[in-house]
Amino acid sequence: MDRRFVVVAAIASLALALLPAPDSANATPNCTASPRLSGSFIQPDLVDSWTNTQIANEDTKLKNACITTQILQWTADSKNHTATYDTGLTGYTWNTSTDVPDRLLSHAESAGIDAYVGLQINDDWWTKYADDTTWLSKEATFSEQLADEVYANYGPYDSFAGWYLPFEVDNDHFQTTTEQDNLARFYATVIGYLHSTFGRPVVISPFFNANLGGALDPSGWQTMWTRILDDLGSTAPDVIALQDGVGAGHATSAQLGAWFSATRSAISTAGVSTSLYDDAETYQLGPSGFQPMPIGPVVTDMSAVSASVAGYWSFSYDHYQSPLSTFANSAYHNSYLNYLANGTVESTAPTTPGPPSANAVDSQTVSLSWTASTDAVGVAGYDIYRNGQLVAATNGTGTGFTDTQLDASTSYTYTVKAFDGAGNTSSASSSASATTPAGPSYGTNWSLGKTYTASVAADASYPDTGGTELTDGVLAATPTYVAAWQGRNSVGTYSFTIDLGASHAIKSLNSTWLQVRSDFVFLPNSVTYAVSTDGTSYTTVGTINRPAIDSSDQIKTYRLIGLNVTGRYVRITVDGGTAWSMVDEAQALTT
To answer: In the chain, which residues fall in CATH 3.20.20.80?
Structure first.
């Protein structure tokens, strides 16, 4: 899968601490422990956001965890013509605030860490794959040009260990011999050039979806890779870091053995000197979106492939277990150090949280608090259950949660469980209930039937038929792909602007969204509402962040109520992240 999704969507909310929490005082890592991680992928955005002090601290943490390799995922984007450094490539601009590869490599050298440097990404890969040979040939040529410039800039670093090719191959889009031959020619060109010109090893990181109907099974996967690697011979990649897919929901731990064994057999049959590594996914889809995978499941997944691999890297310890970020916290890192020191994952559950207290703040909001739990290594966070359903997970030792975008005049009952960085969970707390008061009633919808524009067109698979679906008053009744939904995939931030036809008093603004997690359709990270009287100057009236909901397929409306604003134009700005976002209806209401 496009692994930028599982990190980039979270980077905007990362709050990185300058001075990280200390490593567990009781953990002296054993770097001969098995299985253990020795590498971590890292994305340019994270490096760019860190200060030099933070990078140095991160490298110290990695070395303490016996991780001595980093893989920078890319240095350029050949679709958007951008680079992560001051490039001289024709038509390309520098789009990061710092020289990302220089900072990563220089700090890695000081820390004694090896770094593999990624070449280009290009979102067109996800539609073209190896079917468009003209496009693929251009990408091969650009890979060579990019490698020349990157190596000229950074080759003198002793930490420059090799290259990473970011285009990810799967078990669905390379099933024909033509596709496999096209891919082999691309690899032969690029890897052959990298080998002969720079003499450094080359890494690729394919993935499989064990649950995808119509895709290759392990036997077909083995045949595919045997054929490709046999064609490549001496230009085969030096390392295949195979994504295990568990965090993405592409496989279970029990399914991993067959896929890794098939890949190992393909390498052996082809007779190439490629090493097989496990690219262990150290994230998981939790109730509040992507979050760190506890150490226990990480170790279980590594153990499941131990018979087939030469080592273990991660996607991504830097992003999901590092104590430098409040996206994770020190509990995960310290739990991993504890595992390295003792050879087993700590199994003591946190104590049960103290009795919670729930208070209805208004017709849409309940404030929840509880007494802290304790843990042998450290509490990593708390799971929040509403009416028996897991709806949110907090990060860290805080003992409060604000539940928003609730229904008016409704009773809600809450319980809380503590979890640690190893994956142990406490018993549920006692329950607490609160009832939201009645909310305002709105009878007039100014936006009904009105025209609007979108900054990004809907995807052809889920179009905005007739350009009317946002304001036609037709609300989807069930969370299924009916015609009322219009969708956009991996477009980041976009907006709708509705012309109400005249200025009106507005008391409420809302928009309705779809969640189908199994298909990577997620609620927006945030929706911001703004109004204008002239269509030029807009005033923001409120932002709604993604509310707490359970994992079921469902429809959710993002509501602003109690407004007292006037405007003819309404602008709805959506942070859709890098997944699918699907919207049905938008409304500008008054009493």
So the answer is: 37-342
User: What sign has the CA pseudo-torsion 341, 342, 345, 350?
Assistant: negative
Fold of 357-435: Immunoglobulin-like (2.60.40)
Domain 444-590 CATH (choose: 2.60.40.10, 2.60.120.260, 1.10.10.10, 1.20.1280.290): 2.60.120.260
- CA angle 436/438/444 to nearest 5° reads 135
Which part of the chain is CATH 2.60.120.260?
444-590
End-to-end CA distance of the chain: 47
Structure tokens at 166: 């970011």
What is the fold of 37-342? TIM Barrel (3.20.20)
Kind of pairing between the strands at 526-532 and 508-515? unpaired
pTM of the model: 0.91
Please tell me whether the peptide bond between 35 and the residue prior to it is cis, using omega within 30 degrees of 0: yes
Segments of the chain assigned to CATH 2.60.40.10: 357-435
DSSP state of 491: -
Per-residue tens of pLDDT for the chain, all 591 residues: 677 656 544 443 333 333 344 455 455 788 988 999 999 999 999 999 999 999 999 999 999 999 999 999 999 999 999 999 999 999 999 999 999 999 999 999 999 999 999 999 999 999 999 999 999 999 999 999 999 999 999 999 999 999 999 999 999 999 999 999 999 999 999 999 999 999 999 999 999 999 999 999 999 999 999 999 999 999 999 999 999 999 999 999 999 999 999 999 999 999 999 999 999 999 998 888 889 999 999 999 999 999 999 999 999 999 999 988 766 789 999 999 999 999 999 999 999 999 999 999 999 999 999 999 999 999 999 999 999 999 999 999 999 999 999 999 999 999 999 999 999 999 999 999 999 999 999 999 999 999 999 999 999 999 999 999 999 999 998 999 888 999 999 898 999 999 999 999 999 999 999 999 888 899 999 999 999 999 999 999 999 999 999 999 999 999 999 999 999 999 999 999 888 999 999 999 999
- What are the structure tokens assigned to 172, written together? 């669905």
